[in-house]
Amino acid sequence: MARDEERQLRALEQPIVGGLPDVPGIGTAMRLTPQLGTHLRGLADQLLVDPFPGATISRGQREMLATAVSAANGCFFCMDSHAAHATAVFEREGGAEAVPLLETLKLGSSDGFDPKMRALLHIARTVRANARQLTAQDTDAACTAGASDADVQLAVLIAAAFSMYNRIVDGFRARTAPSVEVYSQRAGEIAEFGYSAPAPAPAPANVKS
Questions:
Q1: 132 falls within a domain
Q2: Which of 29, 91, 94, 164 is deepest in the core (most CB within 10 A)?
Q3: What is the pLDDT of residue 68?
């Protein structure tokens, strides 16, 4: 099934867990309690936005790892939203030439990436699938390609965290948009302010567009 077709089908699904806020995606969990929202946003900031000691990969590349993990998990909300966030970050901070590679990540490929990112993407996808299958050879290969220990740490952390986010979204069957354009406004806000900055109150997710 083509990605666009599957995205349309996902948009027709209804939540299967009762009592959820009527908002899309991970927002359902973030609005269950104020504390949960604070921690979920804070974790995203720590992994994707805030300085990470020793890391050499950029914010945009960190968003790319989140996009790749979400694509491998088949979570369209997280895949599409973090691809939009990566795009906004690249456009804001430089690196817009990398934006076309996001579609490659959605297809599960690493074609077009440099050896360092290919190695980090391999680590992230391996941890997503079965963390025990990650080997010292995998991490050594990343370091040989130019990754720092902190880059490898981030790849593992992002893979683990976004597998959790993906499973929250799809376990709830949280609402998913039928097109990627809806993520652009919030992506610009996240590129500028990060995840913990207040987001505007979303329109009810059951409004037809």
A1: yes
A2: 29
A3: 98
Q: Is residue 90 part of a domain?
A: yes
Tokens 């945009």 sit on residue: 60
- Cβ(104)–Cβ(111) below 8 Å: yes
Query: 48 with 42: CB under 8 angstroms?
Result: no
Residue 199 pLDDT: 56
Q: Is the pLDDT of residue 32 over 80?
A: yes
Distance CA 97, CA 90 (A): 8
**CA–CA dist 132, 96 (Å, integer):** 35
Percent of the chain predicted with pLDDT > 90: 86
Q: Tell me, what CATH number does 91's domain have?
A: 1.20.1290.10
Backbone Cα Rg of the chain: 16
- List Cβ neighbours of 186 (8 Å cut-off, separation of 6 or more): 81, 84, 199
pTM above 0.90, yes or no: yes
Q: Is residue 198 part of a domain?
A: no
Provide the token pair at 108. Answer: 């599960």
Task: Find the angle CA(106)-CA(107)-CA(111) to the nearest 5 degrees.
Answer: 100
Q: CA 107 from chain center: how many Å?
A: 14
